[in-house]
Amino acid sequence: xxxxxxxxxxxxxxxxxxxxxxxxxxxxxxxxxxxxxxxxxxxxxxxxxxxxxxxxxxxxxxxxxxxxxxxxxxxxxxxxxxxxxxxxxxxxxxxxxxxxxxxxxxxxxxxxxxxxxxxxxxxxxxxxxxxxxxxxxxxxxxxxxxxxxxxxxxxxxxxxxxxxxxxxxxxxxxxxxxxxxxxxxxxxxxxxxxxxxxxxxxxxxxxxxxxxxxxxxxxxxxxxxxxxxxxxxxxxxxxxxxxxxxxxxxxxxxxxxxxxxxxxxxxxxxxxxxxxxxxxxxxxxxxxxxxxxxxxxx
Length: 298
Hints:
Blueprint: H1 32-40, H2 46-57, E1 63-70, E2 73-76, E3 85-93, E4 96-105, H3 111-120, H4 122-142, H5 152-169, E5 174-181, H6 183-190, H7 192-209, E6 215-220, E7 223-228, H8 233-249, H9 251-255, E8 259-266, H10 273-289, E9 295-297
Parallel strand pairs: 8-9
Antiparallel strand pairs: 1-2, 1-4, 3-4, 5-7, 5-8, 6-7
Helix pairs in contact: 1-2, 6-7, 7-8
GO molecular function: catalytic activity
Cofactor: Mg(2+)
Protein name: Diguanylate cyclase
């Protein structure tokens, strides 16, 4: 990783490293495009880049949602509503395909509007490439080597960020904790290789049971967590039932009599990392006390 460098987009009077059609805005600090260029250089988080960019795009079109699809997955602007018609644009820089930008808009985009958006994309190219490079490097240090899920360290960082974002934007989210019932006997009776197969299979079930806006983590052992980007208890119930159904239908987990217990809760404006985790853990304890293989809220 020592050979990976984050590319800085330097602004000078000559327009060094800026997209070709933005040089005209240098030394015109009152111009909104110049301000957009500056704001896009303030973060390496892809969802924040999209949110900043979307605020400017709103001056051109009535935008309801914005996503970016890349090899890292799907990122989107905050509070993205993706129910309307999608309009897709490929982002390329020096023959490198960065990914695909997807606008969601209630009204049809004319050719003239599409052309304006394509010109505006030039402001996003370098910040997006920097963010992708940064996140690819970060990903190497934040993934669980067995399951490919995010690890506990990344969970702690993401939970703190999500709490702060919820406080700032006045929107809630849900936290879910899961562990495997009867997992210890798998290791004791069949060995750790069988236990690893169970963990990998369960991780796959979790990834298939959530939406692209939700994030799954493995703490270690048979403990897992999901940050659910939805303020409704009904969403928790749907995901929990989906997970438990998939576990029951899984031949490998059924073979070892492995089920899952689940606890979940909804965040509130006064939460810190400790309080929401303790509340969710209380829900998991209720599930264990009620006979396991069930989900309980707290």
